[in-house]
Design brief:
The complex is a heterodimer. Chain A is α+β, with helices and mostly antiparallel strands. Helices cover 22% and strands 26% of the residues of chain A. The chains are: A alpha+beta, B alpha+beta.
Chain lengths: 85, 146
């Protein structure tokens, strides 16, 4: 069984999709490392793939670790390096 | 509520921040305003566009305030608001305030909120330069994967 997960884009990632989101197909129990590989396959730009290496995946509640399971039904975002203020 | 956090697409109010950070037993209040600067890395800046993740941002802001409250006292009051959207040079992008019985806790807690916000809150800025170019500012990575 696989599922479709939509990843919301923020910051510098926004320039790579006019919809500010990229959908990937994942196995039901996929972890974040699997999500990262699936997301990388969707990127055509070398700069985007480089940015992905220093970016984190998160739900609305918390940043996810590489070994965490991608939660079913949660909104997932990709967060490039941050710089508020 | 002694903790107030928000993200806004309108002008931030320092008066509201100081009104919130006030109590009969508080002899000190510290106010920090972050503003858009006209020069960065040698380039003339005309404006900055702030992008943020509103829900996660508010969660992180609240978490940071709770950490400061645990460190410097339960009675402290906290205010943390950040702008989103395009801001011109001189406009306030962030307003942070803390009040406490004595000045030392306010100074320390306010500094803590500023530094933690910059390193942990999901906020991004795109600088717009006088020469017409725009660039996303490099920041602090939130991930620690190999």
């Amino acid at each position: 069984m696989s599922r479709e997960v939509e990843i919301k884009l923020f910051g510098a990632f926004r320039q790579y999709s006019p919809e500010a989101a990229i959908a990937v197909s994942l196995p039901e129990s996929a972890d974040v490392a699997t999500l990262r590989r699936a997301f990388a396959d969707k990127l055509e730009d070398d700069n985007a793939r480089a940015l992905l290496q220093s970016s984190a995946f998160a739900t609305d509640e918390a940043v996810l670790g590489e070994g965490d399971t991608v939660p079913a039904g949660a909104r997932i975002s990709i967060l490039p390096p941050v710089c508020g203020g | 509520m002694t903790i107030h956090v928000a993200t806004k697409d309108e002008v931030l109010s320092t008066e509201a921040a100081l009104a919130h950070c006030s109590a009969p037993g508080h002899g000190a209040a510290d106010l920090f305003i972050g503003r858009v600067r006209d020069l960065n890395q040698g380039r003339q800046v005309r404006a900055v566009s702030y992008d943020l993740h509103p829900v996660l941002c508010n969660n992180v802001f609240r978490e940071i305030c709770k950490e400061a409250r645990q460190e410097w006292g339960e009675s402290l009051h906290f205010w943390l608001e950040h702008r989103q959207g395009r801001l011109a040079v001189g406009e306030a992008s962030v307003v942070i305030a803390v009040s406490s019985p004595h000045r030392d806790e306010s100074f320390r807690a306010c500094r803590y909120l500023v530094e933690q916000m910059k390193h942990r809150a999901p906020i991004w800025k795109q600088e717009h330069y006088v020469d017409g170019d725009s660039e996303w500012v490099k920041g602090h990575a939130l991930c620690s994967h190999g």
